[in-house]
Amino acid sequence: MMSAATNTFESVKAVILSAHKSTTSTDKVNFYNSWAENYDQDVTVLDYRAPSLAANSISSHFSGSREAAVVLDVACGTGLVAKQMKRLGFGHFVGVDGSEAMLELARDSGLYQDLKLSMLGEETLPVQWADSFDVVVIVGALSVGQVPAAVVRELCKSTKPGGYICMTTRSNRDNLEYKGALERELKQMEEEGLWSCVEVTEVEDWERAVSEQEDGYISGAVYLYKKLQL
């Protein structure tokens, strides 16, 4: 009963709106470190569907051995995406996140073979990871005030030729400019012959709206790309 009382929609909304005040990367990390403990319960209150939507998108197109596939989970947080992918038969995960407290919880989940602390957008992914992963997924971090859209080039670089890159973003008013920049980058990389678009799924009921200007649910999008064989 205790958590139901504390994790009300209004309290979760207040937490998320306070995150928007975090302007420096240090502020952001501090925010996520302090949020980590309640994160899973809070996003449940929000009816946050992005992790399962991304996992389902990958699952519907991945034809190789799921047990053998190595998945890089970028901005992995507490491990919500890995949890969904595990349910669909994937078993080998490497996670990256900028918050030590989130990584602690991801470590406790027992889902990851390796976890790395890294601030995406400020640090590049390890050079030795180039062409290494069967699947690279980033859920939640590609949005205004989080990581720059250009980060998607790093994701592509770390994927094996023929591997999949799955990305999500929100389509609400606050994020439309960012979404436009992200889609231009995705298209530019397609024109450069780095990857091809497998599918883009626009989803109406992405999660409950928290901004003062919006009611009900906001929409979002899942992008699935395949790295081309060079």
From TrEMBL:
Pfam families: Methyltransf_31 (PF13847)
UniProt-listed InterPro entries: Methyltranfer_dom (IPR025714), SAM-dependent_MTases_sf (IPR029063)
Domain Methyltransferase per the UniProt entry, residue ranges: 67-196
Residues in the signal sequence: none
Transmembrane segments: none
Protein name: Methyltransferase like 27
